[in-house]
Design goal:
The structure holds 2 protein chains of 2 kinds.
Chain A: E1 4-9, E2 17-22, E3 27-32, E4 38-42, E5 56-58, E6 61-63, E7 70-72, E8 88-89, E9 91-94, E10 97-101
Antiparallel strand pairs in A: 1-10, 2-3, 3-4, 4-8, 5-6, 6-7, 9-10
Chain B: E1 3-8, H1 12-24, E2 29-35, E3 41-42, H2 47-51, H3 57-60, E4 61-63, H4 65-70, E5 73-77, E6 81-85, E7 90-93, E8 98-100, E9 103-106, E10 110-112, E11 125-127, H5 131-143, E12 146-150, H6 154-165, E13 169-173, H7 186-198, E14 202-204, E15 209-214, E16 218-223, E17 228-230, E18 233-236, E19 240-242, H8 245-249, E20 258-260, E21 271-273, E22 278-280, H9 288-302, E23 316-318, E24 326-330, E25 339-345, E26 350-357, E27 360-367, H10 373-382, H11 408-412, E28 419-421, E29 426-427, H12 428-438, H13 443-450, H14 460-471, H15 492-501, H16 507-513, H17 525-536, H18 550-554, E30 557-558, E31 564-566, H19 577-589, E32 594-597, E33 603-608, H20 613-622, E34 635-640, H21 654-665, E35 674-679, E36 693-698, E37 701-706, E38 718-723, H22 726-743, H23 750-757, H24 759-768, H25 770-787, H26 791-796, H27 801-804, E39 807-808
Parallel strand pairs in B: 1-2, 1-9, 2-5, 9-21, 11-18, 12-13, 12-18, 13-14, 20-22, 34-35, 35-36
Antiparallel strand pairs in B: 3-4, 6-7, 7-8, 10-19, 15-16, 16-17, 23-24, 24-27, 25-26, 26-27, 28-29, 30-31, 31-33, 32-33, 36-37, 37-38
Helix pairs in contact in B: 1-9, 12-14, 15-17, 21-22, 22-24, 22-25, 24-25
The chains are: A mainly beta, B alpha/beta.
Chain lengths: ~110, ~800
């Protein structure tokens, strides 16, 4: 079951950009695409734990700033010949506010 | 319902098209493939190594039967198509199998040419075209002794070499007086012949085959002059011709090949043709690299993207006969108005010839030492002027400016465990495995699969050599026009030009005008476009921080643990006790775990948390520091020596000049990082001759040096010119910098840029033409008006605060 937590107003996340959410246990990266879709995932690249929040967002993927791995924002899967996956969290946008659910981590 | 795509012919060009198509538009078509051979798709250029038993069948398979199943492709292997019914849009195979199409792709390749002499149909007379031919040759070599190969071209010599390896006595019959006349000039051909003779190959030159003699099987070949040579096996390798029969019968317009447009469409627009059977702008191609270029274009069109066009290819050849190093490209026989540069050392078996016109390479033949073949080929393709290194060009690239090819020969003898890519820890074995398993053909593919050569790029030459030696002729050197990134078909030069020419002033404008394939670009084209726009339209373009690599967005260097480093600017490397005290205080205040003096004479503070950056910058900014830009594709530092104020050898005020240069250039965004240095005398303590722009002071003035690099590949600068005053140093520096900013490709340092465009063209603009120099300098200063706003101060005052402020939630 989703347990929604309000995080921030949508306009506080730059288009094609991200913000970092600090929780007690980890950092979560929250991304906004050019079409105003919002995605959240653990702020760690499956390759060498690079902070994905610092990468360049394009389409619905982000390129890790450390070694250019491309991660699909929706699934957390590495794209192209690279293999690996990072945890993603459900998000929703309602009335200009962004919500995240930490109760379930989708995928591996 | 999905559209139906039928492909006739199951060879390399065709299947490559399908692979590209599936990548672009996986669900657009139901695909059916007809192939006359009972196999999947194999690497036809590897037939020679297969014959020579250097490879086995499984090693030359590119797509096995499973690949077709996995991609939902219906494969009719071993079924020859006999008819295309264009009215019903249907192809019919020999056994009656039919397939309807919405789009048809003809990839029937070519047929070996049989000379029509009596006895040509005797058992024991074969061609050299497919796996069945190889098997026939292997079988004959076990039972028989004498082989005759008719045709002294590339294919014939490879067949002869293979048969000789299996113990047969081989005679090569050639109609002309020189071997491989389409690839080699006379001297190289003579060297090749004597080399092969030494290895036991026999030749009958200028010999016209009149008949093939034999009753139940061939026994001899008879020539026009009546003489004969014994033969138990005859291999005809006199040439190939495009297989156009099927297309012709269907009424599709053919000349030598099936005539296609730049989108690989035949005169019937739902029918495409590609590969050896196609004729494009009067050319038929038989080499792999151009066929793959065609495949890319054809797939793009089939996927209904329609943004790319095939504009022909320049080709080069390498002979796959073990022990023979041979390379040829372009027009290697000089005609009137051409000049030839030749190096001939018959004793050591080395011959090199370059054909030059207007200081550009038109063609090349190399025998014995082909190490620099790919370099000559790229100079030829890019049309680079060789005026600056004409005298030494034949001695190879390492003699001109090191770009990493010096080790190319050594690579062959390296063990599989040898590390090739030091950045990503990739061994030679890893690369070879990835190439053979993944069916990789290009540098880009090897980069994607192994990460080799994808970081600093210094091993690119080595990786290319491994690629070339592993896939042989199939290696496609970078296409003649290299797209900026997978989002576009356009090259860096075309984009730079269009931005200027058509006054494109925003990223969406560029992407729309130039038919970008992705809505927001990617991590590789966005920073490039952002830079090009900023450099061209400094007054109007608004920098897009989301298109900046994180270092430039956060104005610090991201470290591997996600923390940042901070380098305050110290102009000319000069500082005061107060400056150092400020830095020490800041370091204490923020618990900086480590400090270091950098190679560029500045102080680096490591391990700073991102959220601390703005307040740290405020403290530094209050004390008068600005950003050192140590993180950016930007002007970095001016390194200086003590100079004549203190040094007993100093001839000029090197520190003072260094400060002036840094004040002029700081804050400027560049295609790549840009370093300067000023040395007070020719002892050159500031190492100015390995900088992007270096000044060496002498008693009578200032020597200006450009294009040096102390990094990945050390390159010593070229001398630009000598000037007499400090004001001139500033003007020349600004002009040179601006020329680099306006013309270099993003992420191209001055060293490769100078080598690519040639020092003469830079001298012409910056030294010889005073008007142009002044204009460049003015444009540089205009850009600086907008660039010299300290990003640290701005952020300390609250700009882009979202970048530095994390959100918090419990849980």
């Amino acid at each position: 079951m989703n347990n929604w937590t309000e995080i921030v107003a949508l306009d506080q996340i730059p288009k094609l950009g991200s913000r970092v959410i600090k929780t007690d246990t980890m950092n979560i990266a929250i991304f906004r695409t050019s079409g105003d879709e919002v995605f959240a995932m653990k702020d760690e690249c499956p390759h060498k734990q690079g902070p994905l929040s610092q990468g360049i967002v394009h389409g619905t993927s982000v390129t890790c700033p450390l070694h250019n791995w491309k991660i699909d924002l929706a699934s957390g899967q590495a794209l192209g010949p690279d293999e690996g996956c990072t945890n993603v969290f459900p998000t929703k946008v309602e009335n200009g506010k962004v919500y995240i659910s930490l109760a379930v981590a989708v995928a591996a | 319902m999905k559209q139906r795509l039928v492909m006739v012919g199951n060879g390399m060009a065709g299947v490559r098209t399908l692979e590209e198509l599936i990548k672009l538009a996986p669900d657009t078509y139901d695909i059916t493939v007809f192939g006359s051979e009972p196999y999947g798709n194999y690497n036809r250029i590897m037939l020679s190594p297969l014959l020579a038993k250097e490879k086995v069948l499984s090693e030359i398979m590119l797509n096995d039967i499973d690949w077709y199943t996995d991609n939902n492709i219906t494969l009719h292997a071993g079924k020859k198509v006999t008819q295309i019914d264009r009215a019903r849009r249907c192809v019919v195979a020999e056994d009656g199998t039919e397939a309807l199409y919405d789009r048809l792709l003809i990839a029937t390749g070519s047929d070996p040419f049989l000379i029509p002499v009596p006895g040509a149909d005797l058992p024991g007379v074969i061609t050299f075209r497919d796996i069945a031919d190889v098997n026939a040759m292997l079988e004959a070599s076990r039972e028989y002794k004498n082989a005759v190969v008719i045709g002294g071209g590339l294919l014939g010599l490879e067949a002869a070499n293979g048969l000789m390896k299996h113990g047969m006595k081989v005679t090569v019959v050639h109609l002309l007086d020189s071997l491989m006349e389409r690839q080699l000039d006379k001297p190289a051909s003579t060297l090749l012949k004597s080399y092969l003779e030494q290895r036991g190959m026999n030749f009958a030159m200028e010999a016209q085959t009149a008949a093939i003699i034999g009753k139940d099987r061939v026994t001899a070949v008879q020539f026009a002059d009546g003489s004969e040579v014994e033969a138990d096996l005859v291999v005809m390798a006199v040439g190939i011709r495009p297989n156009v029969e099927l297309a012709q019968k269907a009424g599709i317009y053919c000349e030598r090949g099936v005539v296609v447009s730049d989108t690989m469409q035949t005169f019937d627009p739902v029918v495409y043709a590609i590969g050896e059977c196609a004729q494009h702008r009067h050319q038929c191609y038989g080499l792999v690299a151009p066929l793959f270029d065609q495949a890319r274009v054809c797939a793009n069109h089939l996927a209904r993207i329609g943004t790319s066009r095939y504009e022909g290819s320049v080709t080069s050849t390498k002979l796959k006969v073990t022990g023979v190093d041979l390379f040829s490209a372009g027009d290697f026989n000089e005609t009137e108005g051409d000049e030839a540069i030749v190096l001939q050392d018959s004793a050591s078996g080395t011959y090199k010839k370059l054909v030059i016109r207007d200081n550009k390479i038109k063609g090349a033949v190399l025998f014995g030492d082909t190490m620099d073949g790919s370099w000559y080929f790229s100079l030829m393709r890019e049309g680079t002027s060789i005026a600056d290194f004409r005298k030494t060009i034949l001695f190879g690239q390492h003699d001109v400016g090191d770009a990493g090819h010096g080790d190319a020969e050594r690579i062959m003898s390296l063990p599989a465990s040898a590390e090739i890519c030091g950045c990503n820890g990739v061994s030679k074995g890893d690369i070879v495995t990835a190439i053979s398993k993944g069916g990789l053909f290009t540098l880009e593919e090897v980069r994607a699969h192994t990460k080799a050569s994808s970081s600093c790029g210094s091993c690119t030459g080595l990786v290319e050599s491994i690629l070339a030696s592993t896939v042989g002729e199939g290696y496609s050197a970078a296409p003649s026009k290299k797209p900026m990134c997978p989002c576009t078909e356009h090259s860096h030069d075309e984009v730079i030009h269009a931005i200027k020419q058509h006054e494109l002033k925003s990223m969406p404008a560029v992407r729309e005008f130039m038919d970008w394939k992705t809505p927001d670009g990617c991590a590789s084209c966005r920073p490039a476009l952002n830079y090009y726009l900023l450099a061209r339209w400094p007054e109007e373009y608004v920098d897009d921080s989301q298109s900046r690599f994180i270092n430039e967005r956060a104005h610090g260097n991201i470290q591997k643990d996600g923390s940042y480093s901070v380098v305050p600017r110290m102009f000319g490397g000069l500082c005061t006790a107060k400056d150092l005290r400020t830095i020490a205080d800041v370091s204490d205040k923020y618990n900086v775990p480590e400090m270091k003096v950098t190679g560029g004479q500045r102080i680096d503070l490591f391990g700073i948390k991102k959220e601390d950056l703005p307040s740290m910058w405020k403290d530094l900014s209050d004390a008068g520091f600005v950003s050192g830009h140590a993180y950016g594709k930007a002007m970095r530092t001016v390194k200086t020596c003590a100079g004549k104020t203190w040094c007993r050898f100093g001839t000029q005020n090197s520190t003072g000049l260094g400060v002036q240069l840094e004040e002029l250039t700081w804050g400027s965004w560049m295609p790549h990082k840009f370093k300067l240095a000023v040395s007070g005398c020719p002892r050159n303590c500031a190492e100015a001759t390995i900088k992007d722009f270096g000044v060496v002071c002498v008693d009578s003035g200032y020597e200006l040096h450009v294009g040096g690099n102390g990094g990945i590949k050390v390159r010593v600068t070229d001398l630009l010119c000598k000037v007499e005053t400090e004001a001139e140093v500033l003007e020349y520096c600004g002009a040179f910098t601006q020329k680099y900013r306006e013309e270099a490709h993003y992420l191209e340092r001055t060293a490769p840029w100078v080598e690519r465009v040639g020092l003469s063209s830079i001298k012409q603009a910056v030294v010889e033409n005073a008007e142009e120099r002044k204009a460049l300098y003015e444009r540089f200063k205009l850009g600086q008006k907008f660039a010299q706003i300290d990003p640290w101060k701005a952020r300390a005052e609250g700009e882009a605060s979202h970048e530095f402020t994390p959100l918090r939630i419990a849980g």
